[in-house]
């Protein structure tokens, strides 16, 4: 009996190897976990209570009106779908570009995508006047409507991202299965018989590569189609061709910022300093800076064409954003999205982890405001503003926003209790094979030499 | 057979029997129950439109006859706040309805005169394009219809309408209806509604309620395809314009000054 | 049986709870209940024969809804050749005046819910206030 136990322990030691910390967040549950779950749970219950109030009384409990009938919920929808672009970018695009530094953060970002998409869809359903009829959009689908294009593309995106997440999870599930214990049956079912042979790895590699390449055009389609909800109308300042790429850029921008925050939180909470290193934040910070500049470019292009055209209908709304009713929100969002992050991210000395996280939080808040400032001013219909439109979101809308974010964080936290958040097999693959593969690749770029290598 | 009177009577009897077989069979058999609907071609023979004679409308100050008639027979609730109001017909000052009409140096000052507004039942309605469930659609006779059974309350049609013709039920409307009209249903919370050109009255050969209620006869309604119709007659006169024609929606409510 | 003293009573209790819907009615003496919708006094004939309409009125009304709202129809030619206006209020409720005394009698018994009355108002509803 003792020998069997010793063999078991030996096997466990071999599986865990030097990556013990990557397993620990599954086994150890500290006080912080319970406190976090309690606070998040309370906020989720608040959001639930707010929604039940809305379901029973109708959308009158929101601040929406006949003039401004889309507000916080639609902002949430665009915002959450925007954040979902992070995962695809970091796990799929970086994989296709063969950027090896993506390894420790690919699952954390992929998970952000999958979970936040649920809340993107959820925000639209929360906004419906008759949610009991939500399936009519499928039963009586009218494909000429951009909302239906949304349904199709977001469903496709959710499917492809979930499959990607699961595929990349399989070898780690197999590791957890081999470790035995109480949950072994659970991991055994999910690991689909993975044994880690060469041929299995090759097949997995092919599948993940296929999914990664497939998800990139889907990702671009998704937020373009979300922007088409606005761009396809003939409302002033919505009917703009730039909305497609503008929203995609904004999505990647806010998404990468979110992933940075997620990375930093996980790193602190689960002591992953050895795996998620300053170089990861540095690289992603540089990319975020590029996105900041790109976002600024699109915003500038959009507004300068409006100003230069000087059409009264458009200018009425333009001035309400720059100097009028919405000026505080507009300038706040500009400061948060551009003025604050750019110096932090551009100057290498400032690109510390803490400062990058600050820049990211600023971007996340700024981008929520950006969506709000795109949606609401146009609805004030300045060209026929007889009735003095005014929109003040109520406690119901804020509670539901808080509830959605909290539920997302809660689901995320619960996921990390069951599966490792840093892909162990990818780290090991990196350790064992990537160094050699990368130097071979670099050598192949350089000219052939007659002299034999030293 | 010898063709005498008897023979003639026999053949005549057989003929009558043969001829009576089919109608007799039909008379005494049960038919398949059928909902009789007009074919699209029948509907398309008409194109309903309305014209508003502004001078006649302005001859009575503070008149709300058309609005009250419409809202009364359609159980439109009076919610009393700008936030939640539901209106199928309403008025707005001229300078806001037609901002493109330069009125800086015009002799008559009708900038603040109220213009009756309603759904324009456009020929190329943007709202119909955006509905994800086809709860709103354009009928062959030109009326942009609303199906309250199918509306999911996403309010995309409201975002699509450049004229602001649509209202949403933010709460249960029933407590706010002054006097319920049994002939027409109420709506529930969570659906969008708008003027329907009184299609339930048109199917009974009645004029829309607003047209009937206007004492000054400022509203003319009829079939654009019929050159003798009232609406066509008014379009031959004076200044005729529409709301925002440059948007290409081809509205069917004309304003005559 | 190991732990038989706990298992067998538990099993009996479980079976009793699970079959509750079946024996409750028999025990409470309500199996004999037949819903009695109040029929209109003056009219003897509905749009369709009683047996057909008792089973098919939902489909009939759905068809009417499709025709009236989405196709612009108004007349229904019944199997007895009579023509009726397709309207829940003007035709059906014109005779069966009170939803509570007619429709609900069977619907409540069968546990049927419908949302028709969220919008459509029956004549007696106004009198009740």
Description:
The complex is a heterotrimer of chains A (454), B (257) and C (129). Chain A is an all-alpha fold and 454 residues long. Chain A is built from 18 helices and no strands. In chain A, helix 6 packs antiparallel against helix 8 (146-178). In chain B, 28% of the residues lie in helices and 16% in strands. Chain B has two domains: 1-31; 44-256, Alpha-Beta Plaits, CATH 3.30.70.20. Chain B has ten helices and eleven strands. In chain B, 42% of the residues are buried. The N and C termini of chain B lie far apart (85 Å). The radius of gyration of chain B is 26 Å and the shape is elongated. The longest helix of chain B has 24 residues, at 5-28. In chain B, the strands form four sheets. In chain B, strands 9-2-11-10 form a four-stranded mixed beta sheet. Chain B has helices at residues 5-28, 40-44, 54-58, 65-73, 94-97, 126-130, 156-160, 199-202, 209-213, 230-235; strands spanning 34-36, 48-53, 89-93, 114-118, 136-138, 144-146, 167-168, 192-193, 219-223, 240-241, 253-256. In chain C, 53% of the residues lie in helices and 5% in strands. Chain C has a two-stranded antiparallel ribbon. Chain C is elongated. The model of chain C has no long low-confidence stretch (mean pLDDT 85). Chains in contact: A-B, B-C.
Mean pLDDT of chain A: 92
Total of helices of chain B:
10
How far apart are the termini of chain B?
A: 85 Å
Overall outline of chain A: globular
Structural class of the secondary structure composition of chain A? mainly alpha
